[in-house]
Amino acid sequence: MPSSHRTIATLPGPRGLPLLGSALQLHPRTIHRTMEAWSHRYGPMFRVRLGSREAVVLADAEAIGAVLRDRPDGFSRPVVTADVTRELGGLPGLTLAEGDDWRRQRRMAMQAFAPGFVKAYLPRLAQVGVRLAARWQGAAAAGQPVALSADLKRYAVDVVAGLAFGADIDTVNAGTHDLQDHIDTVLAGVARRSLAPLPYWRWLPLPAERRLVASVAALQAAIDGFVASGRAAMAADPALRSHPANLLQALIAAADEPGSGLGDAEVAGNVATMLMAGEDTTASALSWLAWLLAHHPDALRRARDEVRATVPDLALITPAQADALDYVEACALEAMRLKPPAPFIPLQALRPTVVRGVALPAGTLLWCVLRHASVDEALLANAAQFRPERWLPGGDATTPAARQAVLPFGAGARTCPGRYLALLEMKVALVALLGQFELDSVTAAGGADPAEVLGFVMAPTPLRMTLRPRAAGPGAGRLNAA
Ligand code: HEM
After folding, report:
1. What cofactor is this protein dependent on (predicted)?
2. I need a labelling partner for 360 at 20 to 30 A (CA). Which of 53, 84, 144, 396 fits?
3. How many domains does the chain have?
């Protein structure tokens, strides 16, 4: 490595304790906020000790873009998360795969989540939205609050299961809430263990750790059920081998090819991956969006008017109508700018490299802080405020510099393959909400503002929503049954 480069030791950073480093200052539930605060204090690149590991924290948009694009060869996801997952029973999937395994799985996921494929799924996605609205109607008529966060998670699980596995599981209504609870427990457990300074669970089988192990087993059983259904559908219609109808069938067909490099574990692992990657992320983005709209009456009115003028009947929504929801999309992007489900992306250097003039040896943990440049006053006027208009043509969020800084779905080869589905899913949920109801309030328990809680994603503390049936007028009450 040329001597002109600085070493990590020259970087500023918080002074930690011997052995523990800064571990005591970093709580897993709020670590994102601490890293963001430290980015202001120590600048766009600093170092921090996480127990025995040293991490380099990066908050500079240009440098973050470069490292995210230097994948899969230059940077991987941190091996700790894959290790934690393996220790829990090993469910390899696209999110944690690396190298050639990742390339093979990624190709299939990109086909299954391609815009054309997702558009073709719109009528079924709309039915899941219709079911969500139907669930809310009783509460709205009775003036009862709805458990918004939990309902949105079920909605997200149903949407992913329908698209990726061809399964109509209806967790929104059927009372089969277990699946979503187990997903939540596993996501929180993997995040907790990945950030722990020591593998305490090996010595201390705390109740939360025992629940985690039980949820992994239950999730595995549910996944086996999806895979068995996928195989049964393919046995009944062998043409699906050459023309799979969804990601699960594509994975099964590939796994059954001799020498494919994919096996049953990868099939099951990707079923788990899609459930986990698609549930909390979208549900969290939607929860924050509903909360922000409830607190910004002008934006709420404009979004509601657009929904009602553009989509007269959710059950019959067309791709053209969904595309025309420009203001709703702007609201979604603005909510994810201020409240990103993924406020940071941790990476690990696969080879010696240089970032902002600092030499990073292979293996360096690089923590990319995404919510820093995206809320910078130098880039966006009133950057802390919710202003969806900034995403409309000519707005300050549409400049190249802003686009580089606001990365809710990551960037580069590993950018989120579910992003198109996620945006469409958010639009359908908002049509379900604003098309049929008047939104009165969205709050955390006791009427408080929600806190940011980091688990697998950054979510609000559970939200409750109060609604009223839509005031009479053209289109009111039109909600075709699923
Ligand atoms: C609002 C919703 C969502 C947000 C904010 C989000 C965000 C992200 C982010 C930040 C990444 C990491 C990207 C990177 O490393 O550059 C990611 C990866 C991923 N997302 Fe999403 N996501 C969302 C919805 C979904 C959905 C609906 C699915 C699929 C069902 C999905 C599947 C995945 C997968 C499989 C990866 C790993 C890709 C890889 O490593 O190659 N996501 N997502």
Report:
1. heme
2. 84
3. 1
Q: Which two tokens stand for residue 33?
A: 């906020």
How many angstroms is it from 237 CA to the middle of ligand 1?
31
How far, rounded to the nearest angstrom, does the alpha carbon of residue 375 sit from its chain's CA centroid?
19
Chain mean pLDDT for the chain:
89
C-alpha dist (Å) from residue 124 to 129, 214, 312, 323, 468:
9, 32, 17, 17, 26
pLDDT at residue 98 in the model: 86
Region 220-242: mean pLDDT is: 90
Distances (CA, A) of 238 to 36, 56, 73, 129: 52, 51, 37, 32
Instruction: Examine the pLDDT at 191 and tell me if it is beyond 70.
Output: yes
The reported pLDDT for the residue numbered 105 is 85
Q: How remote is the CA of residue 284 from the centroid of ligand 1, in Å?
A: 13
Residue 440 lies in a domain: yes
Structural domain boundaries, residue 167? 8-469
Percent of the chain with pLDDT over 70: 94
Give the distance (Å) from ligand 1 centre to CA of residue 50.
Answer: 25
Q: Is residue 108 part of a domain?
A: yes
To the nearest 10 degrees (0 to 180), the angle between helices 264-294 and 148-165 is 140
Q: Which atom, in ligand 1's list, is nearest to the CA of 345?
A: 15
Q: Is 418 in the pocket of ligand 1 (CB under 6 A)?
A: yes
Atom 7 of ligand 1: nearest residue by CA position: 409
CA–CA separation, 306 and 372 (whole Å): 31
Q: How confident is the model at residue 61 (pLDDT cuts 50, 70, 90)?
A: very high
Tell me if 207 is assigned to some domain.
yes
Query: What is the chain's alpha carbon radius of gyration, rounded to the nearest angstrom?
Result: 23
pLDDT of residue 472: 66
Average pLDDT over residues 203-231: 88
Q: Select from 159, 371, 416, 421 the residue to mutate for testing ligand 1; criterion: most ligand atoms less than 8 Å from CB.
A: 416
Identify the CATH number of the domain in which residue 102 sits.
1.10.630.10
